[in-house]
Amino acid sequence: MAARVAYRRVYDDPTPQDGKRVLVDRLWPRGVSKEKAGLDEWLRDVAPSADLRRWYHHDPQRYEEFRRRYHAELEDSDHQDPLRRLRDLSAHAKVTLLTATKDVDHSGAAALAEWLDGA
User: Fold this and answer.
1) Is there a contact between 54 and 36 (Cβ–Cβ < 8 Å)?
2) How many domains does the chain have?
């Protein structure tokens, strides 16, 4: 599955290499129309919890602990339906997880892609 799940910023223009484009942020990104985003789906329920996002506050020094806590959240039954949907999509086509975060390599989308890769 590693080659089938990628991540990038939702503000970047869509490319044919993206495959299915799935927004995985809980909140809609500022300044992006639904048309410009070029989404196939928005799975907001797979995003990190509000408490975890507030704790992390996009601090790269906290990323490893954020990733560990987020992976633990993903094991929670509340995430099972959107995770099943992501697994189904990635089993049939490339999937690009989209986020509004500036530091995409230290984002929930990056942690989710890693988790999906190991699932």
Assistant:
1) no
2) 1
Residue 35 CA, distance from chain mean position? 19
For the whole model, what pTM was predicted?
0.91
Distance CA 112, CA 83 (A): 10
The answer to whether 77 and 117 are in contact (CB under 8 A) is no
C-alpha span between 89 and 9 (Å, rounded): 19
CA distance 89 to 45: 16
- List the chain pLDDT tens, one digit each, 119 residues: 344 899 999 999 999 999 999 999 999 999 999 888 999 999 999 999 999 999 999 999 999 999 999 999 998 867 788 999 998 998 888 999 999 999 999 999 999 999 998 75
| Residue 83 · residue 47 · CB < 8 Å | no
Q: Which domain holds residue 112?
A: 2-118
